[in-house]
Amino acid sequence: xxxxxxxxxxxxxxxxxxxxxxxxxxxxxxxxxxxxxxxxxxxxxxxxxxxxxxxxxxxxxxxxxxxxxxxxxxxxxxxxxxxxxxxxxxxxxxxxxxxxxxxxxxxxxxxxxxxxxxxxxxxxxxxxxxxxxxxxxxxxxxxxxxxxxxxxxxxxxxxxxxxxxxxxxxxxxxxxxxxxxxxxxxxxxxxxxxxxxxxxxxxxxxxxxxxxxxxxxxxxxxxxxxxxxxxxxxxxxxxxxxxxxxxxxxxxxxxxxxxxxxxxxxxxxxxxxxxxxxxxxxxxxxxxxxxxxxxxxxxxxxxxxxxxxxxxxxxxxxxxxxxxxxxxxxxxxxxxxxxxxxxxxxxxxxxxxxxxxxxxxxxxxxxxxxxxxxxxxxxxxxxxxxxxxxxxxxxxxxxxxxxxxxxxxxxxxxxxxxxxxxxxxxxxxxxxxxxxxxxxxxxxxxxxxxxxxxxxxxxxxxxxxxxxxxxxxxxxxxxxxxxxxxxxxxxxxxxxxxxxxxxxxxxxxxxxxxxxxxxxxxx
Length: 523
Description:
36% helix, UDP N-Acetylglucosamine Acyltransferase, domain 1, alpha/beta, Spore Coat Polysaccharide Biosynthesis Protein SpsA, Chain A, 15 helices
């Protein structure tokens, strides 16, 4: 087996886990042959077919090293690649690597000569997204920094949101593109990939609806990133996929007759959808194949003359009509999105214990325990806001939680407020990105370290943040904290005690390093 040869001498650096999703085709017998010779390899066989997304999730959950690489059973790493990748990871430590592929109907390990050298290129996120776009869905092409994934808060719970999309891997690829600093691409063909595999799902719906939906969820409000990923996809890959499916290369189109309206709602914001994807859906296949049927030079010249004439006469009118149609659809979609967001916000705010006026919430806000939450007027937050109020029957002396947030409070992205007892935030407070405010935790030294998941919820103290406080990025405010009015907490600090009014505090745990002057307090 080529994998045995490629990993020889790397036992201390590379672990191999084979996941058998309850195969019934003799795979188990084949696997046993290699396990006998490779005792350090692991095999996980599911007791039933758990589906492609859950199988991928189980693979990610079982990785223990810094990096993981999930390779599909139809794909092969090119000979020589693994050793080159291991050397590169040890020297450079990137966050995310994309490996370009050579596609064929039936791949073999010797389809390409042994790879002698790779030249990884570091790229900015927008450039990276524009180059790769739809191949973010190709799981075998990605090597992922598990530590970086954990650092941005992506775990099993977040990844499980992708179950049913057939693109669960986007749950780690797209967030790392969004938040990563070291994105790397290997341009040499490094993966031998099997083309034409439908994966047993509805192709058009999965790509035309599920993929754009995933992109918008990970990049809410980031139009440039959405465009980089979706515009090229609507122009090239999706039309080709539709034509291939309609021509009979895949036999699933008849089951997807009602996907076009969903595709319009999903991709109608892009001109490329109207100029490329919609014709692939709507035009007769004969018309779409006409160009490929012209062989004779005379016919070619005549066809070119007709084409130029049609462009002179018809294309301006066609383009004008198309622009009008797409503009109307885009306007309707945007109006519908605005109406849906407004309705969602109004519905959620109506459930709160108390709510002020002029509340501005992001599209992806998440509130739990509405009846225990009060929001003041002028509250603002950007994407990723979570406020969770938990009523626990197991915490002695606490009947119900209470979260009170004053007027003109602003949270930057990915703020998380979790309350099981009491959290009070004063007016005119400002919070940076990735701030955690909690009056509870699950950890306990009284429970065996092998049983952490069963630790009871504990609330060792309340949290009070007074008026006019400014809290920097990545700050944790823990139970028992009180931050006096007008104080400033530096980035990456951990607050677990009392910070007097008008103090400047930094560190973990946060310590007072200065006090605002009388003039600064009035500024």
